[in-house]
UniProtKB/TrEMBL annotation:
<dbReference type="GO" id="GO:0005737">
    <property type="term" value="C:cytoplasm"/>
</dbReference>
<dbReference type="GO" id="GO:0015631">
    <property type="term" value="F:tubulin binding"/>
</dbReference>
<protein>
    <recommendedName>
        <fullName>Stathmin-4</fullName>
    </recommendedName>
</protein>
<dbReference type="GO" id="GO:0031175">
    <property type="term" value="P:neuron projection development"/>
</dbReference>
<dbReference type="GO" id="GO:0007019">
    <property type="term" value="P:microtubule depolymerization"/>
</dbReference>
<dbReference type="Pfam" id="PF00836">
    <property type="entry name" value="Stathmin"/>
</dbReference>
<comment type="similarity">
    <text>Belongs to the stathmin family.</text>
</comment>
<keyword id="KW-0175">Coiled coil</keyword>
<dbReference type="InterPro" id="IPR036002">
    <property type="entry name" value="Stathmin_sf"/>
</dbReference>
<dbReference type="GO" id="GO:0031110">
    <property type="term" value="P:regulation of microtubule polymerization or depolymerization"/>
</dbReference>
<dbReference type="GO" id="GO:0043005">
    <property type="term" value="C:neuron projection"/>
</dbReference>
<dbReference type="InterPro" id="IPR030514">
    <property type="entry name" value="Stathmin_CS"/>
</dbReference>
<feature type="region of interest" description="Disordered">
    <location>
        <begin position="205"/>
        <end position="224"/>
    </location>
</feature>
<dbReference type="InterPro" id="IPR000956">
    <property type="entry name" value="Stathmin_fam"/>
</dbReference>
Amino acid sequence: MDAGPSNHRARRRGTSVVGIIGHRFLVWEVERVDDRMTLAAYKEKMKELPLVSVFCSCLFADPLDKPTYKAEDAVDLNWCVIKDVEVIELNKRASGQAFEVILKPPSFDGVPEFNTGLPQRRDPSLEEIQKKLEAAEERRKCQEAELLKHLAEKREHEREVMQKAIEENNNFIKMAKEKLEQKMEANKENREALLAAMLERLQEKDKHAEEVRKNKELKEEACR
């Protein structure tokens, strides 16, 4: 909230008003303007002040009597630096004065580095390098052996699957052949039976024709 002596004025003698902007604090003092101000006018003027200014004026109210300042108490507020605080004068009038207090951001200049206490990494010796190489070679051989074993197991599985497929195919062919032979045998038997029935009918027909012929001849002889 930004509040300044040029925008709002408190109507009591020695009143301190504080405004806050981020990390900046605005503080000023104003004097009483009129002792005969009515209560309604005072309330209207108080409504114009921000809520923070009214709250701070209630908490930090100075006594009615204006303190007397000495020459040795004067401080140059144009630009003064006190440790991590900067004070800049904003406005100075007969009714009071205002200045700005700026808090500096934190600094990490004096913080020690974290890696200073860590031990320095030393260079490996020739023996250590040789051991690492031998261990790497051993790991490589183990990986190759595992890979070859996996490939052999995979090929064996493929061979078993292929053999099983061949056996199933042979069994299917055998069963199909047996069914076909059975069907052909049944067809042969049916055909032979059909031929035998046809021959029997033909023989009966020939026998009947022979009997008819003999009867006809007998009738012709009898008529003579």
